[in-house]
Amino acid sequence: KGKLLVDEETKWIVEKIFSLAYQGYGSAKITKILREEKVPTASWLNFTRYGTFAHIFEGKPESKRYEWTIAHVKAILKSEVYIGNSVHNRQSTVSFKSKKKVRKPESEWFRVENTHEPIIDKEVFYRVQEQIKSRRRQTKEKATPIFAGLVKCADCGWSMRFATNKANKTPYSYYACSYYGQFGKGNCSMHYIRYDVLYQAVLERLQYWAKAVQQDEEKVLN
């Protein structure tokens, strides 16, 4: 009772994703392969089984069934549930007055191993984790962009990719829609924002809220 069971009909999808990652493919490439090979998403399978997510699929083109995202693939590759582990205490509330959830440092997570049957071999899983770490984008100064993985396209929801325009007389960095970058016109548009503009906008909002908290913390949290 309460024990996770392997879904025999769909575990091949998880196995395929890890197999591709183990071979050296990144999340973006895996996402593209899943779409091209028309591998169904979990949302589509839930719709066919239980009728959930009807608002997403009813009356929509067939391609919607295979609309994998990089974020979805990354979540699968990082989830220990596929090696039989259960991980708890990953989130907490801001305060007893607020229900807002915040992610805890991994050092505070509570991990219980071998709670259910694994799908992926641990050696494969941890090898993939090492590959993910080694693939993290770095700037010329070997510093990871501070907004990495946080900036999303307002239209399609995909992550905005970080890049640097070196062709300009004065090189500058920017974020652009990765979905458009991968699949081109007809899927999204070339949403774009300069890194320095984004940095300044975020800084101003942080300063605003920091000041607001100083003036009335209870009002801000509630």
Automatic annotation (TrEMBL):
Pfam families registered for this protein in UniProt: Recombinase, Zn_ribbon_recom
Recombinase domain location: 1-138
GO MF annotation terms: DNA binding; DNA strand exchange activity
Superkingdom classification of source: Bacteria
InterPro entries named among the record's database cross-references: DNA_bind_recomb_sf, DNA_bind_recombinase_dom, SSR_resolvase, Zn_ribbon_recom_dom
Annotated protein name in UniProt: Resolvase
Organism of provenance: Dorea formicigenerans
